[in-house]
Amino acid sequence: MSTGLENPYLFDPLHHVWRSLDLPKDVAPFGMYVQAATRDGWLYGMGGNWSNSFLFAYQPAQGIFKQLGSTVGGSLGSPIVGRDGQVYGAWRNQIVTVKQYTYAPTGSVQSELIQPIALALTRTVIAESPNVIVRALACNQNETVYGIIQGADNYYRQDPFGWLFEYHPQDPDNNLSRHAPEVSPEQRGKFMYGTALAAANNGVLIGGTNSGHLFLYNPRTGNTLDLGRPTTNTDQIAALTTGLDGLIYGGTVSYSGQARLFSIDPVQAQIKLLELPITQTYAIGPLAVGPNGRVYVGVGAALIVYEPASQQATVMGDTTSLSCTIQALAIDSDGQVYAGCGPYLVGYDESTGLFTQLATPGKENGYTPGNVAALVVGHDKQVYGSIERNYSNSELFVYRPGTKQSINLGIAIPTGVMALAMCPDGTIYGSSGTNNSYYGGPAYLFAFRSDCLAGPLRAWDHITWEADTPPGTSLTVDVLDEKGEVLFGQVRNGGSLQSIAVQQHPAIRLRANLSTSDPHVTPTLKRWRVDYTFACQK
Q1: Hey, is 238 helix, strand or coil?
Q2: The pTM is what?
Q3: Can you tell me the distance from the alpha carbon of 122 to that of 471, in angstroms, rounded to the nearest whole number?
Q4: β-bridge mates for residue 402, sequence order
Q5: Cβ atoms of residues 169 and 145 within 8 Å
Q6: Closest to 91 (Cα-Cα) out of 101, 103, 79
């Protein structure tokens, strides 16, 4: 058997035909070479490409395929079968033996101790297509959440499918709707990729796109007004925020180095350019508004403060000593400024004009560091943020100023967190996008309550899992207490856990019991999940 990028084929000498081998769906096409066969019908060979090869075993009678191990940095040459039935090969000038997994009729897999973090998390699927991300979020005074969707349901369609969505948490039966812009077909390309969004005090929304256009959307009428570009040099709208004076403030991206800060009067739909002490820069943003009404602006490594009353802007400090640029800003009710600067969470001391590194959230939580993508300060004055990584999951974290600790919240968002926004009631919403090209799942809107960090666990809810159980195999799950004693044995998939007394058992474990009567197949537990609720949840 030999193949390039197509499916592998096996020659049948009895019938003198080539027969295609049906491999599992999760086995990608690769070059394959069968070089050895055992008496019990197993075929051994090499697969992979020039940079990463591996050994595999295939049992054509039952269609069983096993990848036995990777040989990155070298290749296992010419597997052969000895008289003893053992498979041998040469690798890095050594003779090695090739063994399949040891057959064991029974076994078990036990989870880590499940100690719920008090976050009332919800997830809502916004779009099924992997080409879609939720790029920006805003929450109005009525607690309605709005977001801009970047992309299209069908990658090959060129018209927006519903570029703006609104989510009504108080109406669970009809809580999500999507809207397409009411503009001419020639204008629709301007709305394909939204980049920023802000909710004005009069109920309208101001948004921006990566074509540099601003728009005004009125949820009451469903009408969309194209406001044009702030300047002819505007290539993209980088950020938008709502000021205490009722104006919307925004920043632009300009590839010519002439990015600008501007304001919008949402009533008159008028744009005004604002002067900054830095005149040559490619991007203005992120933005945040302090409790005194001042607008804080990140411009590269510099922090600028704009005073709406005097219409004056001042450079307050920079992050040059940290060798990073400001990517996210958040301000608490006391005026303390927090910034995301590369992989760091930093704090700004207005009395000294200096930034101080507070935490490296990903690294301190035992993960690979990633950029701090978004920040928001909860009603509890704790700082919530997202860490975004390329090609892997993103996480949420919380920084507690009192203890100066950064804690991972344990919520892995495979699509990557793109934005965070807080509603007046304290509910924090997040949207998902992706820098992970290996992820093909849906885009999410998720929510949690910051006040739930102090709330008691109300109830264990139910357990679900996903597993493969070929014929001759079985898998059952037991629920254990902290000491390993069985609370429920052989719980069914989707089974209720509400009878567990949370006062006596605030933490539990799971144990999967796996068994097989066939040495060639095994049950496989892919993932499992326990749902629970908190007393503070609405």
Answers
A1: strand
A2: 0.64
A3: 36
A4: none
A5: yes
A6: 79
